[in-house]
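ESCALATION

Customer reports they have been waiting on this structure for their group meeting. Please prioritize. Original submission:
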Amino acid sequence: MSKVFIDLKDFGAKNVRYIDTRFELGNGDAGRVMYEAGHLEGAIYWDLEKDLSDMQSIYGRHPMISKDKMTNLVEQAGLLVDDSIVIYDQGGSPFALRAYFLLEWAGFSNIHVLREGYEEAKNVLPVSDLVPNYPHTNVTLNWKDEQYIDIETVKKIVAGEIEAQLIDARSAIRYRGENEPIDAVAGHIPTALNFDWEQLKQNGMFLKQDALKEKLSGLTDLTKPVIAYCGSGVTAAPLYGSLKEAGYDNVKLYVGSYSDWIREHEVETSL
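Update from on-call: job pushed to the front of the queue and completed.
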């Protein structure tokens, strides 16, 4: 069973590389401002839209980045594939888990998301407003392409050509098509189940592993491939990580998500 999240009390600060991913949807500069005002000592900053998404792509609102961009991001941060890495955001947010997914895709294995987030961590760990400068590295990444699902694979799942369960991480009213505040078309990808990612957290942090297992283990077959998606691929990342933590053996992420699907394909509603 994967251990995606880590608690403050469960790791030592020595020999850990921190990645700060704080961000605010709709206010693209907020995360960098927060980081420059103070961050865990030694942390680098990765921005959801400048670093962790390809905002020039047409394939959704926060599309997948290329292997070249991910390699450059890792090397500029001075990371090595065997580094012990702890990623954090505000707490109970999707941004650290987006970075987690991308690092896992790139072959990193000693990576965790801090369950409590920065607001709790700053009371326990050293903080600084200094931006560290790590020597660039030269890495060969071991890509796990099977974790990333593109629209062609989703089409085959919907058509019944591939056995897998799509799970929509958006709110129930968006899934059902009752209200759609962002995308041009309301509804969900055909055959998808719904599980609102907001149920995965409480008091600004993600639930413990036992609680995640209780909430998620009955959602579908634990051994069946499951694919998390949302509106733009961002809030699907917490569902992706929580499914892994809850004991699902084969979890994947459709980064393009609903905003990519509706460019050319029909949807379902539950009205």
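Sent to customer with the following note: The chain has a mean pLDDT of 94.
Escalation resolved.
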